């Protein structure tokens, strides 16, 4: 067995390449800006803006108009109960025509009829399958022997002048 003698040398720390190991000097290569988060935040703000400026005022106005039309046009009587006489039916039609006139004249909304000469059209559905449109209707006993049904139609436009866009 022999004796091995090793000389002790003072060696310094190994030299480091600062450009590869220091993350602070290399932040440009590894930094990813939070673009996805920024785009999501922009989308959220756009949705909130669209809701507050377009959707909410539109829905509020539509529900006001719906409530107004329901109070004017839906009768207080039960839907399933038939009219017992021609006079009651004629009075109901006249009430409906009066309510259309009230909406046109007394409403806070700006209603305009599509056809100003004949704002109300009566559609008469005959038993033979034909349909007749007229501006007025006369209810008689013999009239009901030949028809299947009839309805009354009124086409109107609503102009809302609140806000930046009129229409």
Automatic annotation (TrEMBL):
<protein>
    <submittedName>
        <fullName>Uncharacterized protein</fullName>
    </submittedName>
</protein>
<keyword id="KW-1133">Transmembrane helix</keyword>
<keyword id="KW-0472">Membrane</keyword>
<keyword id="KW-0812">Transmembrane</keyword>
<feature type="transmembrane region" description="Helical">
    <location>
        <begin position="35"/>
        <end position="54"/>
    </location>
</feature>
């Amino acid at each position: 067995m022999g004796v091995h003698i090793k000389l002790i040398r003072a060696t310094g720390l190994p030299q480091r390449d600062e450009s590869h190991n220091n993350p602070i000097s290399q932040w440009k290569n590894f930094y990813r800006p939070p673009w996805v988060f920024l785009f999501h935040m922009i989308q959220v703000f756009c949705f909130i803006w669209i809701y507050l400026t377009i959707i909410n005022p539109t829905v509020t106005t539509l529900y006001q108009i719906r409530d107004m039309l329901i109070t004017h046009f839906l009768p207080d009587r039960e839907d399933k109960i038939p009219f017992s006489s021609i006079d009651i039916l004629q009075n109901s039609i006249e009430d409906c025509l009066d309510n259309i006139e009230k909406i046109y004249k007394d409403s806070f909304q700006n209603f305009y009829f599509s056809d100003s000469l004949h704002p109300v059209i009566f559609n008469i559905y005959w038993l033979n399958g034909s349909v007749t449109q007229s501006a007025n209707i006369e209810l008689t006993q013999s009239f009901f022997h030949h028809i299947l049904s009839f309805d009354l139609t009124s086409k109107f436009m609503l102009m809302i002048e609140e806000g930046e866009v009129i229409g």
